[in-house]
Design goal:
CATH topology of the domain at 1-82 in chain B: Four Helix Bundle (Hemerythrin (Met), subunit A)
Shape of chain C: globular
CATH class of the domain at 1-82 in chain B: Mainly Alpha
Number of helices of chain C: 25
CATH superfamily of the domain at 1-82 in chain B: NADH-ubiquinone/plastoquinone oxidoreductase chain 6, subunit NuoJ
Distance between the termini of chain C: 89 Å
Distance between the termini of chain B: 53 Å
Strand order of the largest sheet of chain C: 1-2
Number of helices of chain B: 7
Structural class of chain B: mainly alpha
Oligomer: heterotrimer
Largest interface: A-B, 75 and 86 residues
Strand content of chain B: under 5%
Chains: A mainly alpha (about 100), B mainly alpha (about 190), C mainly alpha (about 625)
Structural class of chain C: mainly alpha
CATH architecture of the domain at 1-82 in chain B: Up-down Bundle
Shape of chain B: extended
Strand content of chain C: under 5%
Chain lengths: ~100, ~190, ~625
Amino acid sequence: MAITLTHYLVLASVLFVIGLIGVMRRKNLLMLFFATEILLNATNIAFAAISHYIGDLSGQMFAFFIIAIAASEVAIGLGLLIVWYKRTGKIDLDQMNSMRG
Amino acid sequence: MFEAIAFYLFAALTIVMFTITVMTSQALYALTAMAAGMIFISAFFFLLGADFLGVIQIIVYTGAVMALYAFGMMFFDTTRNVVEKGTNPQIVFVLGVLAAVMVVTIFVAPIVSNNIQALYPIQENIGNSQAVGMVLFTKYLVPFELAAVMLLVAMIGGIVLAGKKMDKSLTLMKEEEIGGLDEGFEPEAGGH
Amino acid sequence: MELYLYIALFAPLVGSLYSSLFARSPKSQQVGIIASGLLFTSFVSSTILLTYVMGGHTVHTEMMTWIATGDLYIPFGFVVDQVSVVMMMVVTIVSTVVHVYSIGYMDHDKGFNRFFAWLSAFVFSMMVLVMSDNFAGLFIGWEGVGLCSWGLIGFWYHKESATWAANEAFIMNRIADLGMLIGIFLVYWNVGSLQYDVVFSEIGNLQPVIITWIGIFLFIGAMGKSAQFPLHTWLADAMEGPTPVSALIHAATMVTAGVYLVVRANPIYDLIPNVGIFIASLGAFVALFAASMALVNRDMKRIIAYSTLSQLGYMFVAAGLGAYWVALFHLMAHAFFKALLFLGAGNVMHAMHDELDPFKMGGLRKVMKGTFVMMTLASVALAGIYPFAGFFSKDLILEVGFVEHHYVIYTVLLLTAGLTAFYSFRLVALIFHGEERYKLFGIHPHEAYKFMLVAMSPLLVLAIIAGSFKMTYFQLVMNLLPATQYHVHDHTTFWIMTIGTQLFVIAAILFAYKKYSNWSSVPDGSSAMEKSFFYKLLWNQYYIPKMYEEIFAKPYAELSRIAWKQIDLKIVDATVDAIANGIYKTGENTRDIQNGNLSTMLRWMVVGLVVLSILAVAFTVGYNVVGA
């Protein structure tokens, strides 16, 4: 039973949806960041798999850049998080409602 | 056969780890499960012959990102349960299932593979790292440099944002002065 | 010569702009003097042009292009020919006199400077009207004089009646202007040009029906400006304005613009004698109609206004019967003696502290000798006694009617001549003769400033001698207008007619004197005459203003109220409000989406993702199904 591209794509989809669920149900900002990492990794799997099965390095390149972006995001995101925590003492999403219309 | 076993094993492990990450109420559990999941994902990269990517995955995610998160969590109170109120599980469930169904449907649908041509085909006679290097430093040089600048900016940004009071050395200050620094904002967590 | 043309045209404009600089500042004498001086300059230039034109030349100049799109080409062109130079002379003479007179008349008025700005602007518009070489320029001047007339009738805008009269005049003129505009459009549509020379040389090639329509529509415009029935009511109400305005605009110049239009467009009206007959009949009717209303009126200025209306009727009779030069001649003569009459009335008004009822005056001859002489002579001229101006111009119109075999018109005009003499001298007798009834009202009359009387004297001279210019004038205009001499060939008939008319008029004058020169009491509506049906009919101006009120004004007001209450409030406003409310409520209800909660936003984002992916799948499936 050979593992095909479809297997990988389904796996990536499942992981992606797990990430989505995390995005939806997490209220703690730190946990929300974890969920976004899951989303990024799910796409990475899909990219790598497609790269492999099509025989094209572009997919790996994209995965590579996604990793770079994820790293930057974590650095900036955590910095902002710390600033916010220092200012309010909370990292709860429900209390960040200064944009209320 | 070996490939199949490995795929299913790691798939199951990854899904379990990420589910824990998403569902647990303990921040430390989530962090640990996530780190484990990242390492399991690198296994897929090795399986797919993307050795370089797998190594990068381990180094960057498990080494750098997770360490960053670990440091970041030191600022917050991680011992308590993460309380998330007001979430409606039904909506989350329904949306999650729907999204899953749709994404899977899209991916499972037959791809018109004839139309896809490899722009940078994988050459058989050289190793993955070498191939990646050749493509990265020729066709993707400009994005690569941009990514480098972006990382630099992110680093500086992270330092500036997180280290607002770095001009004051905590080691050289007296106890009272350090206490005075925190005046005006009292973290909910309270005790250090 | 073009230089003089431009001086004559633009000097009044300069005067107007200069005066308007001071419009908001307190009265300063120099404004009036400078405006009058510029008007005099214009008069001198016009005189130079007159001598030039009398030498057999004309001046035609194109100042600049005004409208040039596609086939439409309308320049700012001006022409000084035999007809327009006569009008220019009339306008500049009367307006110069009126300007100088106004310096005295408006002496105590707060709006002194503003008055001169409007008055000079009026003269400029009038000059554009008469000098333009095309219908478009004529229309601009036409509208300009309408605007200035509005501003001057409503000059004392704090008075409700003045603003009402101003608006009435303006609106009535707009109604007529629509007709005129249609006429101009028809001309352009069928001829392809608005230049007089082009239009008049090609008008003969058109179908008679179209020419008839053009003539009718242009005449509707003339009817409004010259206050012919049924658009006549505004002229009497226009007497709300200052008296010099009445003299200049509502007697001498603007109201004669309609006559000028018909005279100017004589090649058109020559081709449609039926319309001409209609114009003449209407003119004769208005002459009698207006004169009858003047018989009983007790407002000095309104009496003169009705007299103007009546004389305009005479002019239209002449123009309608093809005697264009006679119409223009009467226009000129009438301008002089009617302006004089009005200015005299202004003096009386000043003396009587704005009292207008001649029954409250009487015996003013003793205190106002100059005015008395002038008004009497002007009335004599108006009545048409030999050798005054009115005799030559008005009797000529009677002769035209007779020679052209329109005996009904002739009879009507003859009767009107008698009425004219009667009401003119009724007025003179009531104002200047008899007992000094004004003493009952505690008024101490005084003569006007001397320079005002001096300013009026040129008009007096012209009112007396204008008739002697007849042959010179005829030689001049016959270059442009049909040169038909109207002579009753049978000498016996001629002398019977002339002497008979004179005797009839003199009899009417004597009757007026006999009846009114010894009047002693102010009528209070109790006498038998005042209770008679005819008196009431005439007193109420044939109930026409009331009829207009009932037929047009009230239903229109009612319609407006319905449009406001039913349509505007309940449909238009309601629709707008409903839209606004809908948007407002949508905003109120959907503002919860913007609750600032990032978690909710993230959830919406996922919803969006799901919806988009569903759509993608659905379309792909649908495409494949249809494609297969």
